[in-house]
Design brief:
mainly beta
Length: about 190
């Protein structure tokens, strides 16, 4: 098994490092809509949040894409018949994605469609809530998710849209666990080095 993993790793690195491999720096900013999910009487409605930062794409048709973003997510929470309360967190989002570009020609340099997936971690630095039923200590300081999305490249610009599925419990209230899920869209520049 170790040999298979080693050979797969070597194969992937050889794809990334072949002569026609690209190295593209991608500063960006975007919007997100995060919510907590569970089958209970706690309802969470996404409100608009933001993120900015960047990532790099390493590879050509198949690529590796690590990144670093400052993110702020907001949501409205309602428990039972209570009034809607606000919950907001700020943190550093660190995605590690892999992707596939649809086109493999000179045309690709100007226009392309990409599909991507991979994991991410959000390290919470600040949490604000006016909800009396939420204890801030019950909210995890680290959130982990799995991303899937699509991107479009047009000359030196790009737009990415994706969804992050929460992998760990973000919040625990009265023995009920809630996961953080988010829809996001980023716009930015492609700087080929």
């Amino acid at each position: 098994m170790k040999k298979i993993i080693f050979l797969l790793g070597i194969s992937f690195l050889s794809i990334l490092t072949k002569a026609e491999s690209d190295f593209i720096v991608r500063p960006s900013l975007g919007l997100n809509w995060a919510s907590l999910t569970n089958e209970s009487n706690l309802k969470s409605n996404a409100r608009i949040g933001f993120q900015f930062g960047g990532d790099v794409q390493i590879g050509y048709k198949i690529y590796f894409q690590p990144g670093f973003f400052l993110t702020n997510s907001n949501m409205a929470i309602k428990s039972g018949n209570s009034f809607s309360q606000d919950l907001s967190y700020t943190g550093f989002r660190i995605p590690v994605l892999f992707g596939f570009k649809m086109f493999d020609s000179q045309f690709e340099r100007d226009v392309n469609v990409r599909f991507f997936t991979g994991s991410s971690a959000i390290l919470i630095t600040s949490l604000k809530s006016n909800a009396s039923f939420i204890n801030k200590d019950e909210f995890q300081k680290g959130l982990f998710g799995w991303n899937a999305g699509i991107g479009f490249d047009l000359k030196n610009f790009f737009i990415d849209g994706g969804y992050e599925f929460g992998l760990n419990d973000a919040l625990r209230i009265a023995d009920v666990n809630y996961k953080n899920n988010a829809l996001y869209i980023n716009l930015g520049f492609r700087l080929k080095l």
